[in-house]
Amino acid sequence: MRPLRFLLAGSVTPLLLLLLPTTALAQTPRAELRDMSCTGIQAAGTDLPERTTLRLTLVDTDDHATLARQDVVTSAAGTFETTVNAQLKQVAGVHMTVQGPGGEELAFADHGMDKTMPMCNLPFTGAGGTTPLLYSGIALVTLGGVAVSLAAWRLRRAAPARQRA
Q1: How many of the other CB atoms lie within 10 Å of CB of 164?
Q2: Which candidate in 7, 11, 58, 135 could, as Cys together with 67 as Cys, close a disulfide (CB 3.0–4.6 Å)?
Q3: CB-facing half-sphere around the CA of 48: CA atoms within 13 A
Q4: Pairing relation of β-strands 105-112 and 40-46?
Q5: What average pLDDT does range 115-126 have in this prediction?
Q6: Per-domain residue ranges for the chain?
């Protein structure tokens, strides 16, 4: 009869633990970073105070320089999702803190990449470099046209000399 009691107690205990409220785990604020690009990173947070203005601070993990600060307002469910705009060229890792209205840290998140392959390691090719390329292209096309015209002129000039011979 004793083994039956142990078996019954062992099967009922996990069921009771599953039925206990887990509100303490659900109220832990969380932050997340994803989709890092050269000009910003997407940030999200859950289980934060409802309809509250929070301060996001983005810091480079290598030199601890502040990359951006941004305020967000949480929803009625205590969540937010935004893109933190920052110049992330040559940045391998960032750390974001979420601060409440009183300046207390509510949550944090880290995003890191291989230090030998930082974000936007390739040179930036924007609109500023197109003008010299455009002029160089026009000059080369013009030079090619002049060369073809000169060759055609020389062939026309040489053609009557061949007919006489």
Answers
A1: 5
A2: 58
A3: 30
A4: unpaired
A5: 63
A6: 26-112
The CA distance from 99 to 53, in Å, is 9
Report the Cα–Cα distance between both ends of the chain, in Å, rounded: 128
| Among 30, 29, 40, residue whose Cα is nearest residue 94 | 40
**Gyration radius of the chain over CA positions:** 34
Provide the b/e sequence for 104-136 (b: ≥16 CB within 10 Å): eebbbbebeeeeeeebeeeeeeeeeeeeeeeee
- Grade residue 129 by pLDDT with cuts at 50, 70 and 90: low
Does domain 26-112 sit in CATH 2.10.77.10? no
How far is CA 67 from its chain centroid? 13
